[in-house]
Amino acid sequence: MDKPAIQYVVEEAVSAGMSDILMVTGRNKRPLEDHFDRNHELEEALRRKGDTDRLQRVSRPSTLADIHYIRQGDPRGLGHAVLCAARHVGDDPFAVLLGDDLIDPRDPLLAQMAQVHAQHGGSVVALMEVDPAQAHLYGCARLHPGAGGDVVAIADLVEKPEPGTAPSNYAVIGRYVLAPEIFQALRATEPGRGGEIQLTDALRTLAATGSAGPVHGVVFRGRRYDTGDRSDYLRATVRLAWEREDLGPEFRSWLRDFVAQHSLASAA
User: Fold this and answer.
1) How many CA atoms lie within 13 A of 63 on its CB side?
2) Where is the Nucleotidyl transferase domain (predicted)?
3) What is the pTM for the complete model shown?
4) How many CB atoms lie within 10 A of CB 52?
5) Based on the domain organization, do 208 and 243 belong to the same domain?
6) pLDDT band at 169 (very low <50, low <70, confident <90, very high)
7) Quick one: 181 and 241 in the same domain?
8) Cα–Cα distance measured from residue 143 to residue 127, given in angstroms and rounded to the nearest whole number
């Protein structure tokens, strides 16, 4: 609609209390940096017109947080991307949010994960129950015996297991709260599936050794959109537009008419 998916992700981090954001980017991502920068010419033009609504929308991205950037260089996997942040993060726990995973703002997953980390220490990953037939498409968690509820203890993790071999149907989705010891584990992690350094493999090491505290999972049952998938991207746009106070009423009316007309045409 009127803001890119990455802004929703940054707003999610800010709403969970995080004010320092590092974006790990690659080639041809300069428009992303420009989006979170000031656009003085446009802001001044809107100010002269007295268009305060658009002025607020244009200026908001640059005021969300302290935003920094680093280039990954060679695309060597998610684990390598996280490792690029080591110098910036230092010895503090931190969160990782994948830019193509959009969590509905009404479902504060990251804030819950931060609370679990504050209570238990260690690292926390977001989990989602998936159809067992689809489990091989994700990193999957093996839970400790007796684990249940929305906060579970993780015994092991496997990145995209072979079909039929997944340890559970609890799939890892793109939110993590990590202990800084993850960097040491990543440095010792050999390239895995796809020839890439997998964050799942490093978390597996932490879960096995317990050297950096436990690894917990928060089972997410809210609204999530995979904006890296074209169909899910379209569904996310429709759902968010449907519920917007400024766009929703007119859009809902149009969409109902559109569906009704095409349903009649299909039946004819």
Assistant:
1) 7
2) 2-239
3) 0.88
4) 10
5) no
6) very high
7) no
8) 11
